[in-house]
Amino acid sequence: MRRWPAVAAALDRAGVGRPGRFTHELVFRRCPECRELNVVCENQFVRVFRDGDPPPLWNVAP
User: Fold this and answer.
1) Is the pTM higher than 0.90?
2) Mean pLDDT to the nearest integer, 32-48
3) Phi and psi dihedrals of 38, rounded to 5?
4) How do 27-30 and 37-40 pair as beta strands?
5) How far, CA to CA in Å, does 28 sit from each of 19, 37, 56?
6) Which residues, including other chains, have CB under 8 Å from residue 3's CB and lie 6 or more apart?
7) pLDDT at 15
8) Distance between CA atoms of 40 and 59, rounded to whole angstroms?
9) What DSSP letter does each residue of 16-55 carry, written as one string?
10) Phi, psi dihedral angles at 6 (to 5 degrees)
11) Mean pLDDT score of the chain, rounded to an integer?
């Protein structure tokens, strides 16, 4: 867990096993109109607060 060293250290201190990476990868898209983040589940690109599909390409970085 290179990206989450504090979480990895806490799990290690607690004696909880952990995988080498996350077990479920989340895909996000930002609505270009309202700027709300949406999670893409099972390749279903659906906006939460507006009608229509979110952009198919990554657009979350600042």
Assistant:
1) no
2) 80
3) -130, 140
4) antiparallel
5) 22, 7, 10
6) none
7) 93
8) 13
9) ----SS-SS--EEEE-TTT--EEEEBTTB---SSSSSPPP
10) -70, -40
11) 79
